[in-house]
Specification:
Blueprint: E1 2-3, E2 9-12, E3 15-18, H1 25-32, E4 35-36, H2 39-44, H3 50-53, E5 57-61, H4 63-71, E6 76-79, H5 94-106, E7 109-114, H6 116-122, H7 128-144, E8 152-156, H8 163-171, H9 176-183, H10 191-211, E9 215-221, H11 225-236, E10 246-250, H12 279-289, H13 298-304, H14 312-321, H15 325-337, H16 342-367, H17 371-374
Parallel strand pairs: 6-7, 6-9, 7-8, 9-10
Antiparallel strand pairs: 1-2, 2-3, 4-5, 5-10
Helix pairs in contact: 6-7, 6-10, 7-16, 8-10, 10-11, 12-16, 14-16
The chain binds tryptophan.
Tryptophan (TRP) is lined by residues 13, 79-83, 113, 115, 118, 200, 203-204, 218, 220, 224.
C-alpha cells in the first residue's frame, strides 16, 4: 500500500484516492518498482490498440521479455480479470481492449478469470446471489468484445471451483503479515479479504497450470500491481517453478466529470457510461457531465482555444474511440486553436460512443448463444 501524507494519495487494489484528484504516476512507478514503457517497446505495438500506443499503458514488468519470447516462437499468453461488482461501464473495458488487441496481433491465448468471490468479500452490500448475477451479466459483455472462441478461456471463481486447488497451494505459501502489508488489510476486514490474494495469484498463474510453464502478461490498472508482485514471488518458489508473469500497467480512465478514476461509487451513474446505456442516455450524460476544456464564452474560445489535455471528451477519443492518429491530431489542433467548439467536440464523441454501443449491444445478444464455447467447467 502506498500512502503519503494523510488524504494525499492512496492506491491499493481496493481503494484509489488522492486529496487533489490527481494521481502521481511517476511516484507509483518509483514506489512499486516497475519500469516505464519505452519507445522501443511501443514501436513494436504500432498496430495495437491506442491504449498501448498513446501513453495510457505507461509502465510494465518484463513485457520486453514477453515480446522477445514471442519473437523467438515461444508460447506466450495474456491473462486479465474482472471483478463483477456491477454492470460494466466503459472504464472497465480498458484491460480487455488490450487483451483483445494482443490476441489479434500476436495470436495468443487469453485467460479471463471472473472474481465474483472477491467482490462478494469486499462489497458489504453485495449478496452472494447478486455477485453470481453480475458475473453472468459481465461475461456476456466480455464475449461480445470479439475474442477468439478457440483461444479464450473465461472462468468464474464460484463456478469453476477447480481454481480453489491452486489457490489453496498458494495460500499456504503466503503469510498473513505479507498479505496485510501488501494489501493494506484492516482488522475489521472479513477474512475473505486475506485469502483472496491467493485466489488472484492462482488466476495469474492459471495459464501455466493449464498449459505448462510459459510467459504470460497481465494488462491491469496500476492499482493491481500488489497482486502482480505477490504472484511473481510465488511463481518462483520451488513448489511451483513457474515463469514470473509480466505485466502492463494502465493509468486510470477519468470519469466524465474528470475525477481520478472512473468509478460508480462516487456518483449515481451519471458520471460514467454503461455498456447498456441508450443512445439518448449517452448523449445527455456527455452533454451534461463531460468535463470540458473549452472557454467560458464562444468569443473567448474562438480567440484563445480550448485545452484538450483536460477535456474529458478529447481524452476518451484519444484513449478509446479514435484509432486514426491523423484524425485525432486534427481534432486536437482544431480544438486548441478554437476552430472546434466544446459542443462540437462532444458531438464527435457522442457519435463514436453510440456507434460502438449499438454494435456492442447487438453482439451481447449473440453472445448468449456462445457462452459454452468460452466458459471453463470443472
Ligand atoms: N481484482 C481485479 C479487479 O477488481 C479483477 C481480477 C481478478 C484480475 N482476477 C484477476 C485482474 C487477474 C487481473 C488478473 O478489477
Amino acid at each position: 500500500m502506498i500512502m503519503t501524507k494523510e488524504k494525499e494519495m492512496s492506491v491499493t487494489p481496493w481503494e484509489v484516492s488522492s486529496g487533489d484528484g490527481k494521481i502521481d504516476y511517476e511516484k507509483l512507478v518509483k514506489d512499486f518498482g516497475t519500469t516505464l514503457l519505452n519507445e522501443k517497446i511501443v514501436k513494436k505495438l504500432s498496430k495495437c490498440h491506442p491504449l498501448l500506443r498513446r501513453g495510457i499503458y505507461f509502465s510494465h514488468r518484463d513485457f520486453d521479455k514477453w515480446l522477445d519470447a514471442h519473437e523467438k516462437g515461444k508460447k506466450v499468453s495474456v491473462i486479465t480479470g474482472r471483478g463483477p461488482s456491477e454492470k460494466m461501464h466503459l472504464g472497465h473495458l480498458v484491460p480487455f481492449f488490450v487483451a483483445l488487441s494482443l490476441q489479434k496481433e500476436f495470436g495468443c491465448e487469453v485467460f479471463i478469470p471472473i472474481s465474483d468471490d472477491e467482490k462478494f468479500f469486499v462489497k458489504d452490500n453485495l449478496s452472494y446471489e447478486k455477485s453470481l448475477e453480475y458475473a453472468r451479466d459481465n461475461i456476456l459483455d466480455l464475449i461480445a468484445l470479439g475474442f477468439d472462441e478457440k483461444k479464450t478461456f473465461i472462468f468464474e471463481d464460484f463456478v469453476y471451483t477447480n481454481i480453489y486447488t491452486y489457490a489453496a497451494r498458494i495460500a499456504k505459501k503466503i503469510t498473513y503479515s505479507t498479505a496485510k502489508a501488501a494489501f493494506g488489510l484492516k482488522p475489521e476486514n472479513n477474512i475473505g479479504w486475506s485469502f483472496y490474494p491467493a485466489m488472484q495469484a492462482a488466476h495469474i498463474l492459471f495459464p501455466q497450470f493449464y498449459r505448462g510453464k510459459h510467459l504470460s502478461v497481465v494488462p491491469v490498472g496500476i492499482d493491481q500491481d500488489p497482486f502482480i508482485r505477490l504472484t511473481r514471488d510465488v511463481a518462483e518458489m520451488k513448489e511451483f517453478n513457474l515463469d514470473k508473469p509480466a505485466a502492463l500497467h494502465a493509468k486510470f480512465i477519468p470519469s466524465l466529470s474528470g475525477g481520478a478514476k472512473m468509478s460508480s461509487s462516487d456518483s449515481l451513474g451519471n458520471n460514467l457510461i454503461y455498456l447498456s446505456d441508450s443512445a439518448k442516455e449517452v448523449e445527455t450524460k456527455i452533454k451534461k457531465y463531460a468535463f470540458s476544456g473549452g472557454r467560458d464564452t464562444l468569443e473567448e474560445h474562438r480567440k484563445k482555444g480550448g485545452n484538450p489535455d483536460v477535456d474529458v471528451s478529447f481524452q476518451y477519443l484519444k484513449m478509446l474511440f479514435e484509432n486514426d492518429d491523423s484524425k485525432l491530431q486534427k481534432i486536437h489542433d482544431d480544438y486548441k486553436s478554437g476552430r472546434l467548439l466544446s459542443g462540437e467536440l462532444k458531438m464527435i464523441l457522442i457519435e463514436k460512443v453510440n456507434a460502438f454501443l449499438k454494435e456492442h449491444q447487438k453482439k451481447r445478444e449473440e453472445a448468449k448463444k456462445k457462452i459454452d464455447k468460452f466458459v471453463l467447467k470443472n
